[in-house]
Design a protein that fits this description.
There is one protein chain. By secondary structure, this protein is of the alpha+beta class. Helices cover 40% and strands 23% of the residues. The chain contains two helices and three strands. Strands 1-2-3 form a three-stranded antiparallel beta sheet, with helices on both faces. Strand 2 and strand 3 form a beta hairpin. The longest helix has 22 residues. It starts with 12 loop residues before the first helix and ends with a helix.
């Protein structure tokens, strides 16, 4: 379930949130299966025209950001999303 969203991209945010919840669960399961004892910080999905960045938060929540690939600075976006996740109070 999406708690908030912002305009700018033509996307069904509820559907995206549900689908990416499955992606996060699958990635966490894979890490457990491989015996990797580390914390998943973020997941990057690259499309032809977009970046989809998922930043994990405590309590099974995540921030989800969609960027226009032709205009985005991926390193800066990851840095800013990490900063937001540290300051966020839910």
């Amino acid at each position: 379930m999406a708690l908030a969203s912002s305009e700018g991209v033509d996307l069904d945010i509820e559907l995206a949130a549900a689908g990416h919840s499955d992606v996060v669960r699958a990635q966490q399961h894979t890490l457990e299966t491989l015996g990797i004892q580390d914390r998943l910080e973020d997941v990057l999905i690259t499309l032809g025209t977009q970046y989809h960045l998922i930043r994990l938060l405590p309590d099974a929540m995540f921030l989800y950001l969609v960027l226009d690939r032709s205009r985005a600075n991926l390193a800066l976006a990851r840095h800013r999303l990490a900063a937001v996740s540290r300051e966020l109070v839910v």
